[in-house]
Structure formats: C-alpha cells, structure tokens
Amino acid sequence: MTIRVWCPELDRVQVRVDGQDHPMQAAEGGWWRADVDAPAGTDYAFLLGDDDTPLPDPRSGWQPGGVHAASRTYDHSAFAWTDQDWPGRALERSVLYELHIGTFTPEGTFDSAIQRLDHLVDLGIDLVEVLPVNSFDGPHGWGYDGVLWGAVHEPYGGPDGFKRFVDACHARGLGVVLDVVYNHLGPSGAYLDRFGPYFAGQNDWGPALNLDGPQSDEVRRYVLDNALTWFEHFHVDGLRLDAVHALVDGRALPILEELSAETARLSQALGRPLTLIAESDQNDPRTVTPRAEHGLGMDAQWSDDLHHALHVRLTGETDGYYADFAAPGALAKTLQRVFFHDGTWSSFRERSHGRPVDTASLPGTAFLAYLQNHDQIGNRATGDRISATVGPGLLACGAAIVLLGPYTPMLFMGEEWAASTPWQFFASFPDPELADAVRTGRRREFGRHGWGESEVPDPMDPATFERSKLNWSELEEDDHRDMLELHRSLIALRREHPELSDPSLASFAVEVADDDSWIVMHRGRFQVRVDFAEGSIDVTSTS
C-alpha cells in the first residue's frame, strides 16, 4: 500500500513499518510517499528529518497503543455494517441526548453503551449526541484534549467498537451526532507542528490551527477530510462542532461555510440527511443562516442564553455570567428571540454582545435548548447537577420549557431521572508534571471564586472519574422513576401533537407574570403553563 504524509518544510522523511525503516519520496504539494507492504493491522510511524523519534500519523485511523505510539493501518471496508436501509435522521422535530461513553455505563465502552440504547428508545430520543471519541492521552477524560482526530479512543473500543455502536443505534432508529474539536489540540501528544505549519498561535485551550496563513490549504483539508470521514466511514448522522468562535479564520470563504458545502454534497451522494451543529459564543445568527443567504450554513447552534435564563429562574444563582439573566423578562426574551444578548450590554464581557435573530426567517430548529449539558455541569466547581439544587417540581418546569418550547431540545445523560451522581472534570494524563499542572490550574481557577482547594475535586484522582459514572440502579427508586416518567410523557406529547414541536418562531408567543412567577407558552391550540411558584406544569388544548 502507499503511505503518505504532509511535511512541506522537511528534506528527509522515513516511515518505520513493523520495525523496518523505509525512505519516503518527496511528491507534489509538500507530500511524501512510500509504497510498502502494510496490510490492515500493520504498525507504522514516521521519522522526520534527522530525528529518530517515531511519531504517529497525523491522519491515523487507529492508535491501539495510545497517542504516543505507532499508528496501525485500518481497513474501513472490512466492517460488516447492517444499516444499509438506514434513511438517516433529520434534526427537525428531533430530541437529542448527550452522553459521554466513559461514564454512561460502569464499563465505559461502546459495547456496554449499546446495552442501554433501548432505554433511550423508550424515552423517545431521536439523536444520540456523543462527546468526543478521538484519541487522547490517558485512559479516561472528557475527550476535548484529543490529538489524533481520526483515531477512535482505544479504551472505549477503538474504531470497530464505535462502528458497532453507530450500527446498533441505527438498528433502533436512533441517529448519532458526534462531538468534534477543531479549535485546538490537547497538551499531550500534539505532534502536528513537527510535520508542518499546522499551528498559528494559541487560544484559551491550546495551540490553534493555521486556517488562513501560509500553507494553510492542507491544514484546512485536514479538518474537512476528518469531518467527512465520520460521515462516510463511521456512518454518523451529524457533527457537533466545539467552540467554533475560537477558529481564527480570516478567509473570504470561512472553513465552516466550506464544511457546510462539502457536507451538503456528501449528503446528496449518500442519500441521507447530514447535520452540522455549532457551539458558538458569538450570539451571531449568521452561524445558522443558509449559505445562499450569505451565512455559514450550520444547521443549528447551541443556545446558552436560554440555558442561563432558565438556570437563574430555577436556582436563583446570579454569580458570574448568570448575573445579566436575573433581569425581569430574561427567560421570556430568550424563548421568543433566542438571544438575550442580541446587541445588549454583557456585564460578564464588559461590552455589548450579540446580534438579533430574524425570527421570521430562522426556525427554532436552528437552536438547541437544554437545561443541562456537559459544560454547564462539569465546569461547576463540584460538577453538581441542577437536581442537587432544586426539587422535582422545578425540574419539571425546566423540562417542560425545554421539551415543549420552540427549539430543538437536548437532555444530558441521567437528566431524565434526576440522577444524583455528579459529572465532574476528570483527566488521566500519565505525565506527572502535566497532571500536576492540570490539578493546580483547576483549583486556582475556582479559588478565585471563593472555593477552597479541598472543595474542588482532584481531576487526576480516579475517584473523580468513578463518581461521575451514572448509577443506573437509581431507576429502581420511586422518585427517580417518577421523573423518568415525566420526561417520557413530555416527549410523547411533543411527538403526538405537531404544534408542540412546531419550530416556527414567528408564530410562537409567551405570556409572563410581572414577577416572573409563571410563564405560558402558546403552541398552536395548546397552552403550556409553567408555574415556578407552585412548581407545576399544565398543558391544555383550546379545542
């Protein structure tokens, strides 16, 4: 087979195949190639210049030994898919369920997660949104410190394991959305800069990609090819793009718009819908405006403003970025107009922020609504869920607004039964210096907000990871079963009555009490009354 690697600034490249070194030949565009006997299952690594340190392939499809070890050749055509008749799953009118493979089940693998998929079907879920599964250093972590974007994390089950999971989801009518991170690489195993000019500066999380500088064409291709691979070879139905506001890209054709166009073409070729969901902190509706209307063409984006307004209304917390959302009518505004900050002053940022949404042209489908997600739980000092703060009545109020409102709803794993387990920040970097830096940085960050060091869980302690695993035995308890039944009933109502999943923002209306003690959402012939003071919900029909 031919092994290729992009190294435009080197004058010597070798590939080590099963322990034997082979010289590579320079080819057009900064690529190097070598024809070697390397069938599926063969280990290989690159030797760059005069450095005899073997490095994994930046485009590796399999890293069974971890992010510092040799890559292994992988044959995508060898997997026996059974989803040939899968029609795909569109985002419109769907309910999403966000989960982390490592903590969704006690075993923390794709195969064990398959055993819980029937629970999601019974709940009424349409799309399973999986936190990043690409390779990162150490056995467990959130997945946002990945460094080899095309290789599935081996402790989860590797590439075949993920394919079994997707195949099993499709067999049950569930689509799969995969969380991918293109805005930075993790702190351990990020060797891209040794191969070529992949990086251009830093952002808050690590080295940022060179998307618009010299020799950036191949860097952009690296991103685009990775995204399309998940669709084509792993059969996923959508991608959730992490923190796209951190992508520094000054080109006339932004990479998100380019990705949207290529995804649309692949969707046509595959004959099934493919979805792109962005996480963006910019409150800019152009993110989800169609390309034909000079937007970036994302199908949807996360809506943090609604989360913040709802969280403040239910908990009374007003620290940090929650402060602005204590304003009267904040929840009603975000329900009707998506963004609370739509050109208004943001005290947290100390500047005006955002841009108004044209609710006559953009549907509610384009915005995800959630009461909880991995960030809003895991980035709290102790990783506590909202169910640790408020009771069942207010949880029901939050669920009704998310599930019966105009936006695309998403639940976080365990939310449907008010899981008591926290979801904390955890990592497992083998390098002791890096581990200590992460530990110290986490405690320093929350120390500035008044937390004592002993109160902030040690992210490197395996117990922090273990505490974050769902406890499925809670479903045997009456209060958790009652909450599960509530969520199941609300989703069933949404599915049974089209008005309750109508994405039209132009026809959506709310009434709200002067003191914000209750709110009524008008959904066609239905009225959804949410009484925060009483902790009750009421869904009535006018016909």
Write a concise synopsis of the structure shown.
With 543 residues, the protein is α/β, with parallel strands linked by helices.
Detailed description of the structure:
It is a single chain. The protein has 543 residues and is an alpha/beta fold. Helix content is 27%, strand content 19%. The protein is built from 14 helices and 25 strands. It is globular, with a radius of gyration of 24 Å. The mean pLDDT is 96. Its EC number is 3.2.1.141.
Our Rg estimate from Cα atoms comes to: 24 Å
The biggest beta sheet reads:
8 strands, parallel, barrel
Helix proportion of residues, in percent?
25-40%
**Can you list the strand order of the major beta sheet?**
8-9-12-15-16-17-20-21
Relative strand content: 15-25%
Span from first to last CA? 68 Å
Structural class, by secondary structure, is alpha/beta
